[in-house]
Amino acid sequence: MTRGKLSPEDDVAGRAGLAAALAAGGDILDAGGSAVDAVEAAVRVMEDDPVFNAGRGSVFTAEGRVECDAAIMDGATRAAGAVAGVRTTRHPVSLAREVMTNSAHVFLAGAGADSFARAHGVEAAEPGWFETDERRRQLDEILSDPEAPFDSGMKYGTVGAVAVDSAGHVAAATSTGGLTGKRWGRVGDSPLIGAGTYADDRAAAVSCTGAGEYFIRLVFAHEICALVRLSGLSVDAAVGALIAELGSMGGKGGAIAVGPDGLGSWCFNTPGMYRGRVSSGQEAEVAIYGDE
Q1: 36-46, pLDDT tens digit by residue?
Q2: Catalytic: 158?
Q3: What is the pLDDT of residues 176-206, one digit of tens each?
Q4: Fewer CB within 10 Å, N or C, the chain?
Q5: pLDDT tens profile 14-36
Q6: Which of the following is catalytic: 88, 158, 174, 270?
Q7: What does 205-248 look like in DSSP terms, one character per residue?
Q8: Which one, of 272, 271, 162, 273, lies nearest residue 221 by Cα?
Q9: What single string gives the DSSP state of each residue in 67-87?
Q10: Is the pTM of this model over 0.85?
């Protein structure tokens, strides 16, 4: 995602989507709402926006299906919920929250996760609702070259949100369609608590995007929180240290994070990353390219 490579239309649409997500979460925080409510609301907006690889607009698997993953975590209690391989639930992040708040489990997958959604009144959607022509074109492009690795040359597009509320509690949520052309039920870091998503009031809330296999091996999001809590690093320094380690392993991606003191950070080792932030008394800021 460099200047000139992203079309003007995609640039405008991406910034508009980020602004809408910030408004949804920010309005909740302005009204004294919880960080958990805020991150869920922000991610739901992006799940409904086909610009992003989450919910509607998710990428296709090699078999031509859409399979969504999501997670959410409450830093105050360290309660968490996650789902993977969801195909008929409109907002995977809300299903993850339902798992967190109204089940004895943390992680549900596949048809069982969708069945849980129906049993608990979480809004459904037909599989076709998630599909877009552009994502189909991307799959066709990959499948046309059997020698090409899946997702070759295409942005990841995972969405996430972190927040701290007026009580000083943090929360994180992440949602994704995964990798274009993924096979064999592949699941990345996004729904894995501690890898792509983590929140702990003693340290920070973290959400990640990028090459999931590397984030999993680094237990990336939890490692940031461990550095803050046990080594005394700032959130910004901890995020930077983990991105450096990610790069040393050959991984690409980025992360957003915020501590209970309200100090936030983002860092990435790619040409760009869709990102934005808003806080009390400050206007919303959105960016895409690395030089912004």
Answers
A1: 999 999 999 99
A2: yes
A3: 999 999 999 999 999 999 999 999 999 999 9
A4: C
A5: 999 999 999 999 999 999 999 99
A6: 158
A7: EEEEEE-HHHHHHHTHHHHHHHHHHHH---HHHHHHHHHHHHHH
A8: 162
A9: -EEEEEEETTTTEEEEEEEE-
A10: yes
